[in-house]
Amino acid sequence: MHVVFIALSLLASQRAATFEEAKTLATNGDMPILLYAHGSDWCSICETLKEDVWDQESDVVGVVFVSIDVLETPTDESNAANKGFDTNKVRTFPSIVALTPSGDIMGRRAGETLPLDAEGMQSSLRAFSAEVLKR
Fold it and tell me: Secondary structure of the chain: what % helix, strand, coil (to 5)?
């Protein structure tokens, strides 16, 4: 029973507060990063989906979750949290970007490939994470 618990805890997804922390967790756990790019000060649908889906997701395992807030007027705090990730690589918001532990892009879901309703977003997130974990 103890071995099963350890195996499940190793597969559990983790959440990082910053991109640099996500890279460290991903490297230590040999897991991909799932990054949610949003703009809290200008994209209301981004924030709704972040709160209703991204922050609540618990069925996706084996990845490191991190959100990157791309503000119209960046703050020292947002710059520190986003450090190491080139936000210019995101052109459509919201976006989900899959990265290797070293930060190389494995794939993305954005624009017309990302539903803007909670149920569709949840389904898309789970399907995309399953694709990423197969690589």
Answer: 45, 20, 35
Output the pTM of the full model.
Answer: 0.88
How far, in Å, CA of 97 to CA of 6, rounded? 28
Measure the N-to-C terminal CA separation of the chain; round to a whole number of Å. 29
Other beta carbons less than 10 A from residue 8's beta carbon: 10
- How many whole angstroms separate alpha carbon 84 and alpha carbon 88? 12
| 72-84 pLDDT tens trace | 999 999 999 999 9
pLDDT tens for 102-126 read 999 999 999 778 998 999 999 999 9
Q: In 3-state terms, what secondary structure has residue 56?
A: coil
Nearest residue to 64 via CA among 94, 38, 27 = 27
